[in-house]
């Protein structure tokens, strides 16, 4: 202690200096201690709950929140992922685990997060998510509301990301239900909105030629109504023709029908004017009703045909499947045998190469030879159809008999498919049976036979058979593909259902003797008549392609149709070479066609070349091409054409083309056309000329939808359309869609979804 007297100034100064030194020293010491312990103080910072309220008995137990990452229990809306694949968004109740409880502590070890919460998912809910409930070994109380799969399945776990509201559930493949890739539960399907729609396509032309002036217009109009699960459609056309000889106008009804899905049967019910598929029998126009399997109700990995791949893994392994150098499938499997039956349908032939990569780095590979024909179905798939109605054939020379038809295609094990069907009318009965087989390295083949009894309009009755086979094979190492080779043979007495409906018949076998006594043959020149003596005998068709290098290929395809009592056949042949050299695309094609009613064949030779102009100034933003084509017909007419084609405006909404040519028949000729893809419709206009004519053509096409928000115009509609609603956001372009943007209210139509 320093006592300071007014007379002792020197001593007072010393005391003050000493005091300040001591204070500075204490300050530095405490600063250093604060820096040293700041991290520890922050990590272990603790405030007593008693400091917040009154007595200790009124304070909640907050001790669980002393742990990092702990979150409060409650109900949260989360995205649920199974094996990193999104399944569903739903509200889930989360309960807090008590770490001092042995049972809860065991559950916590199966959770890969630090929230301290367990998602309350029942056994039934886990089953809906694709987990095989039989894999929950040791679960004695199936009524439990909160089940952690990791308690009962080895290597399974759940992880809750609280910040992203994402719940991940990881389960080995062996414990999963055998659900196909892309499977969506039917309860999540949506019928779409109730709406009315119109799709229109208008085209017209004005032609001035040596014979006079003509004017043509054509309208194709499709209207429809979507009402809950029902779809109503009506197709009509209007045509108009005007010349100096007269005027012609006509509305024509094409077809009307209603349909709705039958989800439980994975089928569609159609009533009205329908067209049968041609999987088993030839397609028919029917007015009545049909029910048939709808492939759109199956995930892509269950449609069409794809072989079943079987193998064995020593460890948790990765299975990679490639075709023609591209990966078409990849998955992870558990140790033991595995079966892969959800490959996406592969419509092109080509062997499948399977590589199994084990967890220890070891690999094994094998090949599954694969080819396909249209009738093949994957193992376990069934396709059926049942049709009842009247034949709705066009032309005044045909009858409209009542028709009953049924077909069934069934995929069996060992890559075998069996199929069959029947057709019945008052004058016709046919039954078909066949089978298809993927023979591995030998390719794939299908064969069937049809037995038919026909009572024709002239009163005569015939019985006959028709046999058909199809074959396909791909030789990848050689780059050769037999895309489809088919042969059909029909006996003299075989007729199709369509042929028995023709009223105008000539050439009966029993008329031969009578015809020999007549001075003129009994031939009627009707366009819709049928000559019984020229019924089909055999038909052969083939298509072969050969790859040449990486970007060139040569192909040849042909058809030959022969007839009973007629030595002249219908022959058709196309052969060609197409590919590219650097950035130049080219095509060379030869065609040959010979019909029974023509004395000589039509032959043609065609060459085309296309060169991109992207490197030229002005064509960097908008693609453009220079084109040249030349053709020569069997009568010696040679035609050459050179031109330019490209796009313009923002987002390439405008397409244009201009060409100039010369031919022996038409002399100098040229074409100019412009098309525009707008937000409300598509339009086009063109002009062409030669030494003998001048022509202007034009067109307008689009669609409109009437919905609860009003009327929205758009480009031509497809079968599946999306109505985009962004209220208040006008003139906003839709990504990856040319010309489509929102209207002044914020609505837009995305067709062909």
Summarize the structure in words.
The N terminus is likely disordered. Among the domains are: 112 residues, PapC, N-terminal domain (Ubiquitin-like (UB roll)); 62 residues, Sandwich (Immunoglobulin-like), CATH 2.60.40; 49 residues, Outer membrane usher protein FimD, plug domain (Immunoglobulin-like, Sandwich), CATH 2.60.40.2610. The protein has a 24-stranded antiparallel β-barrel. It has a 5-stranded mixed β-sheet with strand order 3-2-1-5-4, with no helix packed on it. It starts with 8 loop residues before the first helix and ends with a strand. Helix 5 links the parallel strand 25 and strand 26. With 753 residues, the chain is mainly β. The chain is built from 5 helices and 40 strands. 8% of the residues lie in helices and 50% in strands.
């Amino acid at each position: 202690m320093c006592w300071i007297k007014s007379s002792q100034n020197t001593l007072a100064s010393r005391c003050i200096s000493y005091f300040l030194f001591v204070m500075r020293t204490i300050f530095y010491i405490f600063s250093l201690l604060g820096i040293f312990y700041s991290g520890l103080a922050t990590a272990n910072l603790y405030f007593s709950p008693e400091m917040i309220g009154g007595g200790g008995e009124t304070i909640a137990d907050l001790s669980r929140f002393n742990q990092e990452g702990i979150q409060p229990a409650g109900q949260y809306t989360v995205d649920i992922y199974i094996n990193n694949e999104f399944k569903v968004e739903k509200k889930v109740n989360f309960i807090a685990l008590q770490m001092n409880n042995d049972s809860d502590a065991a559950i916590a070890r199966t959770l890969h997060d630090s929230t301290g919460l367990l998602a309350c998912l029942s056994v039934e809910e886990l089953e809906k998510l694709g987990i095989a409930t039989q894999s929950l070994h040791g679960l004695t109380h199936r009524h439990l509301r909160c089940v952690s799969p990791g308690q009962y399945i080895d290597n399974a776990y759940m992880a809750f990301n609280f910040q992203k509201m994402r719940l991940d559930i990881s389960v080995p493949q062996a414990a999963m239900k055998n659900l196909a890739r892309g499977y969506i539960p039917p309860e999540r399907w949506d019928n779409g909105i109730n709406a009315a729609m119109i799709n229109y396509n208008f085209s017209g032309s004005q032609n001035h030629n040596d014979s006079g002036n003509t004017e043509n217009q054509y309208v194709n109009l499709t209207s429809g109504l979507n009402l809950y699960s029902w779809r109503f459609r009506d197709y009509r056309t209007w045509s108009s023709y005007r010349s100096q000889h007269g005027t012609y106008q006509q509305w024509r009804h094409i077809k009307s029908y209603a349909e709705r899905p039958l989800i439980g049967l994975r089928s569609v019910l159609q009533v009205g004017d329908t067209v049968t598929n041609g999987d088993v029998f030839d397609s028919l126009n029917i007015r009545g009703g049909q029910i048939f399997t709808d492939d759109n109700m199956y995930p892509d990995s269950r449609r069409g045909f794809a072989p079943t791949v079987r193998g064995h893994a020593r460890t948790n392994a990765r299975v990679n499947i490639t075709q023609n150098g591209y990966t078409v499938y990849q998955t992870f499997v558990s140790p033991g045998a595995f079966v892969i039956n959800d490959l996406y349908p592969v419509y092109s032939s080509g062997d499948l190469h399977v590589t199994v990569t084990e967890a220890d780095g070891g690999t094994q590979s094998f090949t599954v030879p694969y080819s396909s024909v249209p009738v093949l179905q994957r193992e376990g798939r069934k396709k059926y159809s049942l049709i009842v109605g009247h034949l709705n054939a066009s032309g005044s020379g045909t009858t409209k008999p009542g028709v009953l038809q049924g077909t069934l295609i069934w995929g069996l094990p060992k890559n075998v498919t069996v199929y069959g069907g029947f057709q019945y009318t008052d004058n016709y009965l046919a039954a078909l049976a066949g089978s298809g087989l993927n023979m591995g390295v030998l390719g794939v083949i299908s064969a069937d036979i049809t037995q038919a009894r026909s009572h024709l309009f002239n009163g005569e009755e015939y019985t006959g058979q028709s046999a058909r086979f199809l074959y396909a094979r791909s030789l990848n190492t050689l780059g050769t593909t037999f895309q489809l080779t088919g042969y059909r043979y029909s006996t003299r007495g075989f007729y199709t259902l369509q042929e028995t409906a023709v009223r105008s018949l000539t050439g009966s076998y029993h008329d031969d003797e009578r015809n020999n006594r007549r001075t003129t043959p009994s031939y009627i020149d009707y366009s819709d008549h049928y000559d019984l003596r020229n019924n089909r005998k055999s038909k052969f068709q083939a298509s072969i392609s050969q790859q040449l290098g990486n970007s060139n290929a040569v192909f040849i395809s042909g058809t030959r149709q022969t007839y009973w009592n007629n030595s002249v056949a219908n022959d058709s042949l196309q052969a060609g070479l197409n590919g590219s050299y650097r950035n130049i695309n080219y095509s060379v094609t030869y065609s040959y066609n010979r019909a029974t009613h023509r004395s000589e064949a039509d032959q043609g030779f065609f060459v085309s070349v296309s060169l991109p102009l992207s490197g030229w100034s002005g064509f960097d933003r908008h693609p453009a091409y220079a084109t040249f084509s030349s053709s020569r017909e069997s009568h010696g007419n040679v035609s050459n054409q050179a031109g330019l084609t490209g796009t313009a405006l923002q987002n390439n909404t405008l397409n244009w083309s201009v060409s100039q040519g010369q031919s022996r028949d038409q002399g100098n000729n040229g074409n100019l056309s412009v098309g525009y893809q707008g937000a409300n419709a598509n339009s086009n206009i063109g002009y062409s000329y030669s030494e003998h004519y001048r022509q202007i053509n034009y067109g307008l096409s689009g669609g409109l939808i009437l919905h609860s928000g009003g009327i929205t115009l758009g480009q031509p509609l497809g079968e599946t359309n999306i109505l985009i609603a962004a209220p208040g956001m006008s003139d906003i372009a839709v990504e990856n869609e040319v010309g489509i943007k929102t209207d002044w209210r914020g609505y837009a139509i995305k067709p062909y979804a």
